[in-house]
Structure formats: structure tokens, C-alpha cells
Amino acid sequence: MARVGILSLGLLLAGQLAAQSECSNDEDNLLSWLRANGGYAHIHVENVTVDALRGVVAATDVKEGDSLALLPDDLIIEMGTQRHSSAENAAVLLGKQTKDAQWHNRMSRYWDGLPGMNSGLLCRHLFTEHEAAMLQSESMKEEIEQDQEHLRQVFHGTAKWWETLLGLGPRASLVKELGVQHNVTLQAFAHAACLVGAYAFACQRGTWPFHYSAICLLPVMDMLNHRAGNASNAIVDQNKNGSYSCHAKRAIQAGEEVTQTYSQVTSRMDHSLLQYGFVEEHGEPLLAAVDSATGFEHEDDSLYGKHAHLTGPEELKRLQGILESLETTEEQDRALLTDARRRGDGREEDILRFRIQRKVALKQMIERLQRGLVMRQASSSARQEL
Ligand SMILES: *[C@@H]1O[C@H](CO)[C@@H](O)[C@H](O)[C@H]1NC(C)=O
Ligand SMILES: *[C@@H]1O[C@H](CO)[C@@H](O)[C@H](O)[C@H]1NC(C)=O
Ligand SMILES: *[C@@H]1O[C@H](CO)[C@@H](O)[C@H](O)[C@H]1NC(C)=O
Ligand SMILES: *[C@@H]1O[C@H](CO)[C@@H](O)[C@H](O)[C@H]1NC(C)=O
């Protein structure tokens, strides 16, 4: 029997999702556990990229609209609300594990499958100072520092005096959940917060008419990789009875990877890197939110075509200034990426991929604005000649 209580926190944190070679056993365990609890999943877990990134492939051919997986309501893991941070949700989760040993034990198949401390998981809570500096962005570095400071507050259960005064302290803390005697390390807690941030879904809980929104972990459903919009072929949805289903958006063949779109904000690569630890490679990437004049708020760069001040010489100069201020060129980053790949440093790879995509996006927008300005000049001189 698995150890329960705080000790088996180790189970949650030292799971083996990243140890690819032994996946079939864990996978059988997970899928038979799901079946034993009234759910199903017609999928296999496999290496889906040359870099051995794991993902889920369809076990059989499925038609558009077919159900690929069902997760019963009582396997859903509810944490805090939408207003809780990932760190606060992690504290709530670790508290639940400690307080309800029976439930914790029942869910052990799921905990076992989560990426462990040595899996190379990367997100805002796990960036080292060196890695944060490698991003070549002061504002991302500041964001990371703030999030890590917040994580320490939640860990220690402390708040700044003015936050306490205004009732803005952490909504949950590890000390409150586990007592002062707990032996979770800050590093293990940061790992848990990162995991929760990358894996959790927004969910509806409660029974009619007492519904409320929460943040939940959805075993199995959370193994699908992300693809943007139309490139994804499945959708994860909550059913009326609270359970979750995964449906095919179009026909999927056996062996084909099953993917879903995590959230619109992933379209900005800096957000996807800090929240989920990946950078999707696009032929025409969007500007990073830190560079875009519109920030995170828009899921595409089309505003650039719609507003005169975003197509003028000032904006062109601003973007050129950013590109010139970056310490390396795209070519240098590509060479560094090749080297990181050779060394098998997945975290550095992600950061370099971000730097490259960011530069590609900047160059692309600069060219677009230059073309637009040339055309504007041409048409205004044509008007003058008339
Ligand atoms: C997946 O990748 C890992 C790590 O590179 C490797 O050990 C394993 O054999 C691969 N599994 C499959 C099924 O290709
Ligand atoms: C962690 O703390 C618990 C009591 O809360 C104790 O039983 C356990 O031995 C500790 N584990 C380690 C590895 O120190
Ligand atoms: C997505 O697919 C729909 C329907 O096939 C299509 O109308 C739409 O233009 C596509 N969107 C993108 C961004 O490709
Ligand atoms: C809940 O709804 C789903 C989808 O409609 C269905 O497949 C499942 O059997 C239902 N579960 C229960 C316990 O009624």
C-alpha cells in the first residue's frame, strides 16, 4: 500500500511521467484505474516528437464527434477558485492530500503519473536566476521574481503588512494547510505550484442551482498536448452531470496524436513559456506579449492593421529598438539551440526557442510595417502628381 499523508507527497512530486521508457506499465495502471472508476480512454501514451516529448495518440480510428475519453465527476480534483494563484492552489491540493488519506490513496495512480522533480518541468516558479536572465527581457524577469516572491509568501504563510491590512494576503498557505511542522521543501512546493499552473483546468462544481467555478485537475484529460486553434483535433468539455468528455473535432486515425487548445493566451509565446513551459513553433509567430503594443489582451496581431498609430513610424521605431537591444541575434540563438539539443538540456532549449520565435516575430512585424509605410508614401506621392 502506498504511504499516505505528508510522506506520500513524495509520490506526487516524484512521479515518473518524464521517464519515458517505462510508460506502458504506468499507462496500463492509469487506464485500468480510470475504467475501474467508471471512465474510459481510447488512447495510448507515446513519444510524439523526436525530442521524446510525451503525448497521447488515438488507440482506434474515431469519427468526428466521437468520444475519446470520459472522466467521472468523482475523479476530478478540485482546488481553489479562479482567484487563487497556482501557488495557493498547490497549497490547497497538498492540504487535501494530507487531510484525506483515503482519497489520496485512491488517487495514487494519478499522482504516480505526474512529472517528478527531475523531469525538467519549467514554468515561472522554477526559473533559476540564470534562466530568467537568459530570457533577454527585463519585464519577464520581473514577473518571475514577483511570482517567486508570492510563492515564498504562500509557503511561509506571510504577507506584507499592507497586504494584511487590505485583506490581500495569500488566500491559502502551506503552513495553514499542513501546520508549521510540515517538511515540504520550498523547491518541492515550487514544483507543485508549477505543475498545478500547467495542468489545471477551469471547471464548474456543485449541483444545480448551486454551481460555482473552481480550478481542477482532470486526470488523463491533462495528458493531451496543446495545438493552437484549428491545428488541434479534440476538445475537452464538461458534461451536464459534471463529468468530463474528450471529443474528436474531426476524424482521427489510430496512432495519430490527439491534441487540444489549452487557452487563448498560449498564442503569446512568453505566456506559454512562463505558464506551461513550452513554445509552439509557428511559421508566422505572433509578437510576444512583452513586445506587442496590445499585450496579452488580443489573441492575434490583427490590431496592427486596424489602428493608424500601430502602423506608423513610431511603432516601427519602437519594435526596431527592441530587436536591436537584444543581446544575441537569431542566428546566434540558433547555434546555441543546436548546442543545447546536443547536451540534452530541455529547459535551455525552451528558452532559446522562445528567443528565436520572439526575434522572428519582431522581424516579421518590422517588415510588415516597413512595407505599409512604403505603400503609403507611394500612394500619397501618386496623389500629389494627380
Ligand atoms: C521514448 O523516448 C525515450 C527517451 O528518449 C526512450 O527511452 C524510449 O524508448 C522512447 N519510447 C518509444 C516507445 O519510442
Ligand atoms: C515529514 O514530517 C512527518 C510529520 O509531519 C514525519 O512523520 C516524516 O518522517 C517527515 N519526513 C521526512 C522525510 O522528514
Ligand atoms: C478554422 O477552420 C474553420 C472551419 O474549417 C475555418 O472557417 C477557419 O477559417 C479556420 N481558422 C483558421 C485560423 O485557420
Ligand atoms: C454523464 O454524462 C456523460 C455524457 O453525457 C455520460 O457519458 C455519462 O455516462 C454520465 N455519467 C453518469 C454517472 O450519469
Describe the structure.
The chain has 386 residues and is of the alpha+beta class. The chain has 3 domains: 1-36 and 77-211, no CATH class; 40-74 and 218-262, Beta-clip-like; 278-385, no CATH class. It is 45% helix and 12% strand. The strands form 3 sheets. A 4-stranded antiparallel sheet has the order 1-4-10-9. It is globular. It starts with 8 loop residues before the first helix and ends with a helix. The relative contact order is 0.12. The model is unreliable at 1-22 (pLDDT under 50). Residues 20-21, 46-47, 52 line the site of one 2-acetamido-2-deoxy-beta-D-glucopyranose (NAG). Residues 46-263 form the SET domain.
Side-by-side strand order of the widest sheet: 1-4-10-9
Proportion of helical residues: 40-55%
Number of helices: 15
Distance between the termini: 88 Å
Query: What string gives the helices and strands in order?
Result: HHEEEEEHHHHHHHHEEEEEEHHHHH
Which features characterize this protein?
11 strands; S-adenosyl-L-methionine; alpha+beta; binds 2-acetamido-2-deoxy-beta-D-glucopyranose; disordered N terminus; 386 residues; SET_dom_sf; 3 domains; signal; SET_dom; Beta-clip-like; SET domain-containing protein; four-stranded mixed beta sheet
Summarize the entry for a quick read.
The protein is of the alpha+beta class and 386 residues long. It is 45% helix and 12% strand. The strands form three sheets. Strands 1-4-10-9 form a four-stranded antiparallel beta sheet. Strands 2-3-11-8 form a four-stranded mixed beta sheet. A three-stranded antiparallel beta sheet has the order 5-7-6, with no helix packed on it.
